[in-house]
Design goal:
- 2 copies of one chain form a homodimer.
- By secondary structure, chain A is an alpha/beta fold.
- Chain A folds into 2 domains: about 50 residues, Orthogonal Bundle (Helicase, Ruva Protein, domain 3); about 110 residues, Dna Topoisomerase Vi A Subunit, Chain: A, domain 2 (3-Layer(aba) Sandwich), CATH 3.40.1360.10.
- Helix content of chain A is about 45%, strand content about 10%.
- Chain A has 8 helices and 6 strands; from the N terminus they run αααββαβαβαβαβα.
- Chain A has a 4-stranded parallel beta sheet.
- In chain A, helix 5 links the parallel strand 3 and strand 4.
- In chain A, helix 1 packs across helix 2.
- The radius of gyration of chain A is 21 Å and the shape is globular.
- Chains A and B meet through helix 1, helix 2, helix 3, strand 2 and helix 5 of A and helix 1, helix 2, helix 3, strand 2 and helix 5 of B.
Chain lengths: ~200, ~200
């Protein structure tokens, strides 16, 4: 359609999530017509990130350091360890702002159907860490999806023999939500997990 | 929030049209977590395109060649010259499939308020081409917006003395459209431009 280099760029842009052929074309033409400096910067940043960003050796989150800032921070307690699925979940919990323990990022969830077993999401590393460090509480904050729940159950079972108390974040009606619009599963869960006042 | 390289990448991704902070974060994490080969390819393609893609010396469209494929194609008639605003417009007309003349791409439109005058959109080059080549018909296919119409009027006035017939693409009710849902301006235009059957 366009010249080969532009067509190649449009195809390459389609690797971005949520970007189809029309958006990719719009992005490519926008960058080349109006914002070449920003495009050059993006190419450089992307190349550098692909080359240097790897996983933190302690918590498996994405970082260009050997040990990420959160793991290296001496002000954070090592007594609590929160297990999440992705680095974006770490950010969400940090923005909530009331947790000062450490994290372990699975970068995925158990999914036997896709061939993803415990080693693929670093559960061996997690169990090793539970044994070697003085972790008192393991907080399971995987997503409340089928795979996330299965991963949480598996982790709870594995941690049982290790003298660590295990907890799961609460599920129920979100603040500001209206009961009328909440799905039945969530509402049933909220009833079953009610607390005395 | 994340490590510096990842934050830089998220900021750089915001140069893409329609990408806000949340989408940029999602894109960066997706690329780094799941699709590093595609990300490396995108970085390479983008860098190459920024470096090599420039403008066709004849029609001003985006291309990495000196003269683009459409201009260099001897099978296309030089008697008709179609003026459009962007390379995407060329693609749209090519996909409609019934035009085999050549193009001239303004890469913008007249917009005195933004300081965009005739030289900025290559109108001097266009007029020179009308004089030096045997162009018989100049087809104005700028967008039916205020700026596009103003650009078309300006071009028509400029081309008047050059022995070239000037035409404007038709505006009216699109095929498959229902009158009930067409805006008043378009409908008035469709009435005023009615043709005898």
């Amino acid at each position: 359609m366009f010249s080969p280099l532009i067509d190649d760029l449009i195809n390459a842009l389609r690797c971005l999530p949520g970007v189809g052929p029309k958006s990719a074309q719009r992005m490519a033409l926008h960058l080349l017509e109006r914002d070449k400096p920003a495009a050059a910067k993006l190419a450089a940043r992307l190349g550098e990130a692909v080359e240097k960003v790897g996983r933190c050796q302690k918590c498996r989150t994405l970082t260009e350091q050997t040990i990420c800032n959160t793991c290296a921070n001496p002000k954070r307690s090592s007594k609590q360890l929160c297990v999440v699925e992705t680095p974006a979940d770490v950010l969400a919990i940090e923005q909530a702002g009331n947790y000062d323990g450490k994290y372990f990022v699975l970068l995925g969830h158990l999914s036997p159907i896709d061939g993803i077993g415990p080693e693929d999401i670093g559960i061996d590393l997690l169990l090793e860490r539970l044994q070697s460090e003085a972790v008192e509480e393991l907080i399971l904050a995987t997503n409340p999806t089928v795979e996330g729940e299965a991963t949480a159950h598996y982790l709870a079972a594995q941690a049982k023999g290790l003298n660590v108390s295990v907890s799961r974040i609460a599920h129920g009606v979100p603040l500001g939500g209206e009961l009328e619009y909440i799905d039945g599963g969530t509402l049933a869960h909220a009833f079953n997990s009610r607390r005395s006042v």
